[in-house]
Amino acid sequence: MKLHNISINNLKRRKAKMAFLTIGLVVGIATIVTLVTLTQSMSGDIERKMDEFGANILITPQQNGLAMNYGGISLGGVSFDQKEILESDLAGISTIKNSKNISAVAPKVLGGVQVAGHQVLLVGVQFEKELKLKQWWQLFGEAPKAADEVMLGSEAARVLNLMTGDTLEMKGERFKVTAILDQTGSQDDSLVFADLPVAQRLLDKQGRINLVEVAALCSGCPIGDMVLQIAEKLPNAKVSAIQQVVEGRLKALDQFRRFSYAMAGVVIFIGSLIVFVTMMGSVNERTTEIGVFRAIGFRKSHIMRIILLEAAIVGLLAGFLGYGAGMGGAKLALPFMAESKQAPLVWDALVAFGSVGLSLTLALLASLYPALHASKMDPTEALRAL
Amino acid sequence: MALIEVREVSKSYASGDETVDALRGVDISIEQGEFVTIMGQSGSGKSTLLSILGGLNHPSHGTVKMAGVDIYALSGEKRADFRSQKLGFVFQSFNLIPYLTAVENVMLPLAICAMKSKEKEVAAREALCRVGLGGKTDRLPNQLSGGEQERVAIARAIVNRPEIVFADEPTGNLDSKTSLEMMNLFRALNQAGQTVVMVTHNPENCDYSDRTIHLKDGLVE
């Protein structure tokens, strides 16, 4: 017989009270685990989506001028002192502090060429990186692999009357059309895509780049910081974030996160209140019992240890059960909350240990006053001396 | 020197606007191995005296020495240690812990002692045998009769081999046959050397004790 036997036996033989106390805490912890896990899983899902949705950082040559286009209508622009990006400078991007957040860097060269009597815009790309960046592209045919292969936008294919397997001629060189891009509704529909070095040669822009699209994963890294870091490496380039894509999503997520934390706060408060009221009630019910403990020589610290040990056992049990129930809740709720139906559930060890730790801390803190109250009870109660 | 020496002990309580004097200058001496009963009518101060003797209730005035120790000069926690080592209590309603079995209830005073679990259990079973409850040791209090509960309460009081056992109207809730058995048990314990101080309102119980102290209106008659 030790003090912990008293605590354990009390909990074992007062099952209803213990169940009520545990359920109160389990509900609180489960709610917190569900909200935190949902937030984490949705963040991960949105980050993946952002990666799929393409670039969120744009690198263009520095220019002292203003673009004059709006809503797809271009009126030309006034620009002077145009600088260029050298392909060799792009290596600097991989050396920035947040380089691990960079998912893809896709350089492009642009220029007009004559094809079958039509003036078309030729874009030189690195196909492997471009396809990673634009995962929504649907290709009819195979993506070009060789230097003499090209891909056409749907509108360009229609105007030039070409299909996969046909050939076209640009600046006296013949190229095989290996793929036609399905309609995207964007400028991509009107372009002719060729391998980057080939396009640079045809446009006489060897080693030079007009545009770089960068896909950055925003987890743990504000996109603004990455823009500044890239700008430092490329002083002749203008680096800008596609803010509406990034911030819109992050803001929505941030709002949900704040809502989750507010909810968690309320739940923690209610959970603590349940523990406090139940423990206080239990202590008051056990006045005689505590009086007997004191009469037979238990110190105040012994009484506190008995009460706090009971709280700790309930807290630990509720922590484990709450974590399990919370993860179950998150698994059920995630398909309805996340953008993609197959969004994976995030299993975070910190949430697991944190939920058990939080439950234990809550149970102990909420039981501290009842335990103190119990330890100060008058032992004469047991003897009915008054 | 007497085992218990009570000198000029008084105890007053505030009751509303009035002050009630439960004890008014009590002097008592109890020797080692004595069986003393304290008699008195309801409100005579006998339970107050017992709680003061048991180190549970600070007197308003006076001193209580046990085995030469002025127990109210000790701090509250030191006095708890003193109770744990030197005193045993039997309460009127037995006050067994409802969620502990008979043997666990008897082991309760040993829960705070530095003893091996096995030794504690052996001591508890031995105490239960001494009070004639060798069987039913693993039953909960609500599965025991009043007399059996009383035996468990006595076993709990003697398990740590205290110098003095205090009993507060231990036959108050028992039928006459069981009361007789319990008084014989107390007498047997006393004959084995145990000092017993018992509060009772039943004059028949006094026949079993060596000496009876009569209290009236907070004074020894």
Can you offer a commentary on this structure?
Chain A has eleven helices and 16 strands. With 386 residues, chain A is α+β, with helices and mostly antiparallel strands. Chain A folds into three domains: 182 residues, no CATH class; 74 residues, no CATH class; 90 residues, Barwin-like endoglucanases (Beta Barrel). In chain A, the strands form four sheets. In chain A, strands 1, 7, 8, 9, 10, 11, 12, 13, 15 and 16 form a ten-stranded mixed beta sheet that branches. Chain A has a two-stranded antiparallel sheet with strand order 2-5. In chain A, strands 3-4 form a two-stranded antiparallel sheet. The longest helix of chain A has 43 residues. Helix content of chain B is 31%, strand content 28%. In chain B, the strands form two sheets. In chain B, strands 6-7-8-3-9-10 form a six-stranded mixed beta sheet, with helices on both faces. Chain B has a four-stranded antiparallel beta sheet with strand order 2-1-4-5, covered by helices on one side. The chains are: A alpha+beta (386), B alpha/beta (221). Chains A and B meet through helix 1, helix 8 and helix 11 of A and helix 1, helix 2, strand 6 and helix 4 of B.
